[in-house]
Write a structure and sequence with these properties.
single chain; alpha/beta; 4 helices; 5 strands; about 35% helix; globular
Length: about 130
């Protein structure tokens, strides 16, 4: 069971640069990108996932709500992927604001941010 999220729980927006040609993703496509099973968007362009810092409540919420995994499950997944040489975990940034800056500067980077930060510089691919 997921922890009880009150009405004040932050809404998550998964975003890319507004200049990127991708306009939406399904939960399974997002999971594939974030778990290292795919490094491309459905249209074939490269997808580079970005994570918030490990201690970020938004990161925990994203993985619980969207990917369906706990922080421990994510850590175990990446330990196995690194050990077997099949992948590297997403790059980490300190905050939603830093994630948005990275997304805008580098088309192809995809990250989840606090929905309150969404503006015309980004395209929302998925929100929850």
């Amino acid at each position: 069971l997921l922890p009880c999220l009150g009405a004040s729980a932050t809404e998550i927006a998964v975003v890319v640069s507004a200049t990127t040609s991708v306009s939406s993703l399904t939960e399974s496509q997002l999971a594939d990108i974030y778990l290292g099973r795919s490094n491309r968007f459905p249209n074939g362009t490269p997808a580079v996932p970005c994570d918030l810092a490990e201690d970020s409540p938004l990161r925990e919420t994203f993985y619980a709500r969207v990917i369906g995994k706990t922080p421990a499950q994510i850590k175990a997944h990446w330990s196995k992927m690194i050990f077997t040489g099949r992948g590297e975990p997403p790059r980490e940034v300190a905050s939603s604001a830093a994630a948005k800056t990275l997304v805008v500067a580098r088309p192809g980077v995809v990250c989840y941010i606090d929905k309150a930060l969404v503006d015309g510089s980004v395209t929302v691919l998925f929100s929850r």
